[in-house]
Amino acid sequence: MWEWYTPLMTAIRNDPELGFFLVFILGFSLVGFERFLRLQARRRLIQDTPTSRIRSAAQGYVEFEGWATVSSSAPILSPLTQTQCVWYRYKVEEHDTDNKGNSRWSTVRSGTSSHLFLLDDNTGECVIDPDQAVVEPAHKRIWQAGDYRYTEELIHPLEQLYTIGWLKSYEPMQHSLHDWVRDEVIAWKADPAKRRQFDTDGDGELNAAEFAALRTEAERAAQVAYQNEQLERGLAGQTHMLNAGDPQGRPLIISSHPQRLLATRLHRQAWLWLAGALATLGLFVYLVTERIPSTML
């Protein structure tokens, strides 16, 4: 049964590059199986999770559909084309030649947006934190100028999105007045300008009376700031945020493609990875059991 083992080891000792090649194709096969399982799990997750409304969504792992909008008055601009967007990913590659004369593209610069943006589904708004997200944008552009190749992917404002991830909602005012005052006093005490303002004797230190005066003014400022914050945010309701914080490690997915199309693409990609894994595994088995031993006879 193991007649091929000795000829195989002899062949690898005589040709170390053969050993590296066998390890490579076996590794590719294992990666292919892993990608197949991961993509299939992701597809089932998308198909099995019901779509929720932002206004009434339960906390936890949820699915939303809506329209992307910027979360502030400052626009988000893509680095390569200065296009207004809510999310971007880009890559700049340079064409060069290695020592063996082989032509290749080397990445010289790349980046992915980490800006927060909003999803609106007509029942409410949800803040989307794209950090560590699996993003599938519909808009991708590749162009070349001289020895450089540019790739840019975008999600535009008002573009319809499918999202699934970990939802957590925050109350408008989660800090008490006591916490607000405490933080303000600590900030004032650590501020050199504030300390000089209340250091009436100019000795560089705050005595008990001077610190009491600082504390009184800090408390008054904190109360005013707290009341203003309540007026500004008290009517806003909860702030909903979707991110990649699922304790079970399920992914945050953001897609410009409709849910059904996304699931179909994941299904197709999974089976392509499986086909590649089976093909390379078959090649590995053929080489180590048939081809290499026969050459050593």
Describe this protein's structure.
The protein has 297 residues and is α+β, with helices and mostly antiparallel strands. It has two domains: 5-171 and 238-295, no CATH class; 177-233. Helix content is 43%, strand content 27%. It contains six helices and 13 strands. The protein has helices spanning 5-14, 16-48, 177-190, 192-198, 208-233, 259-295, and strands spanning 60-70, 76-77, 84-85, 87-97, 103-112, 117-120, 125-128, 134-136, 139-145, 148-155, 160-170, 239-243, 253-255. The relative contact order is 0.19.
Summarize the structure.
The chain has helices at residues 5-14, 16-48, 177-190, 192-198, 208-233, 259-295; strands spanning 60-70, 76-77, 84-85, 87-97, 103-112, 117-120, 125-128, 134-136, 139-145, 148-155, 160-170, 239-243, 253-255. The chain has 297 residues and is of the alpha+beta class. It has two domains: 5-171 and 238-295, no CATH class; 177-233.
Note the main attributes of this structure.
single chain; 297 residues; 4-stranded antiparallel sheet
Radius of gyration: 29 Å
Uncertain spans: none
Amount of helix: 40-55%
Distance between the termini: 17 Å
β-strand amount: 25-35%
The largest sheet is:
5 strands, mixed, barrel
What is the total number of structural domains? Answer: 2
The best one-word shape is elongated
Helix tally equals 6
Oligomer: single chain
Query: What class do helices, strands and sheet pairing give?
Result: alpha+beta
User: Quick one: how many beta strands?
Assistant: 13
Mean pLDDT: 82
Strand order of the largest sheet: 1-6-7-12-11
Helix-strand topology string? HHEEEEEEEEEEEHHHEEH
